Amino acid sequence: MSHYILIVDDEPSIVTLLNKYLSQQGYVVSAAFSLAEAREVLAAKEFHAVIVDQNLPDGKGIELISEIRMTSPTAAIVMITGLADIPLAVDAMQNGADNFLTKPVDLKELSVFLKKSLEIVSLRRFAKTSDRLKKRGPIFFGMSEAMGRALEMVQLAAENEGCVLITGNTGVGKGVLARWIHDNGGRAAGAFVEVSCPSFRGELLRSELYGHAKGAFTSAVQDQDGLLEAADGGTLFLDEIGDMDLYIQAQFLKVIEDKTYRRLGETKVRRSDFRLICATHRDLQDEVAAGRFRKDLLFRLQMLPLHIPSLRERQEDIPALVRHFLAEYHYRYRDLSPDIMQFLVSYSWPGNIRELKNLIERAALLARDKELKRQHFTGLWDTAHADRAARPDTIDALEQDAIRNAMKQCNGNVARTAKLLGLSPATLYRRIKSMKSGDA
């Protein structure tokens, strides 16, 4: 990656020397010979670092530091000053400069200073990005009534500390919602620790959660912290808790109630103040009836139950989700042709939102920023062709099913159905009339 450097100095010979040297080091260099010119350049372009001389024709370089910090808070600032101005340079560092050099400038020393300063830039940008990611904005899962009710519960969960149990089929976004609840709750500054219960069975899950002491089992060659310790002050997310072994469930129930635990092979009682969020695609009531899940643990987990409906249960959300994902990928064409949208609405989506999102991303990659067409939705159209071969009706069988399903969802309201399918009401009326004449 190229780093862009601005040199602010009124001596052309120094600017030429620094420009030549830094360009040879791989930097992209710009120059300004006064405060006014520097302000103009900084307003037009962002720089990774600014090398500024203290004495300029229209003022002091120190005046520029606070301005740079306001407009480019992550930029590195190196001040160049004469020996007599060292106290002023120290003051400049206290006000935001990262380093200072005295004249005559040692080029190798400048190179070292720049490298260190740019490392500071990287750290600042990482911290800024991390802060932005923690402060996640609203999530979009659709605008259907069913999803609206679910998102009300998501908001309630973020505002409270109670245990959350998220249920729903694979791919509906349970993990995404768990993370959003954490990031927008009172423990956002703490860790979000995710554990996939099916990935660790029996003693492996116990060791993962509680940690172990050296010698607790054959391969325990040293003490190991558990994820409960990592989640202290934050959130523990147990994905697919319905796959947790029964004897682990019994132990974990006590952990939830007391917030205490022991490492494997250790008698010392440890504490962890964690917030618990769980998720499962299983019906835990059925699991209780089958003897595979503890009823008392289920009661404890259901303080804030949250069910995410499958995509096939809310097909009216599909057009909006498609446009949302295309916008997320910054794709030029946000509207699909009616026949493609009809197919997407009528498809069963066994993989739910995850499958839809992956399909849209793949189609966008295949289309290469051109209008999306059938061939870009690889795989799905095979199902449509099979339907056509089995039912060669006057109107495409797939389109008929899509219209019938949409009319049913919209309680026969033609205007709402047209909006759902991406058609004009007049076009929909014509197709309904054609369907009726075919049925006759």
What do you see in this structure?
This protein has 440 residues and is of the alpha/beta class. It has three domains: 131 residues, Response regulator (Rossmann fold); 165 residues, Rossmann fold (3-Layer(aba) Sandwich), CATH 3.40.50.300; 127 residues, Orthogonal Bundle (Helicase, Ruva Protein, domain 3), CATH 1.10.8. It has 19 helices and 16 strands. The strands form five sheets. A five-stranded parallel sheet has the order 2-1-3-6-7, sandwiched between helices. A five-stranded parallel sheet has the order 9-12-15-8-16. Helix 2 packs parallel to helix 3 and helix 6 packs parallel to helix 7. The protein is flat and about 85 Å long. The termini are far apart. The relative contact order is 0.07. About 3% of the residues have low confidence.
List keywords for this structure.
Rossmann fold, 16 strands, alpha/beta, Helicase, Ruva Protein, domain 3, five-stranded parallel β-sheet, 49% helix, 440 residues
Strand content: 5-15%
Shape: flat
DSSP strand count: 16
Which class of secondary structure composition applies to the elements? Answer: alpha/beta
Distance between the termini: 68 Å
The CATH first-level class of the largest domain comes to: Alpha Beta
Label the CATH architecture of the largest domain: 3-Layer(aba) Sandwich
Report mean pLDDT, rounded to a whole number.
Answer: 82
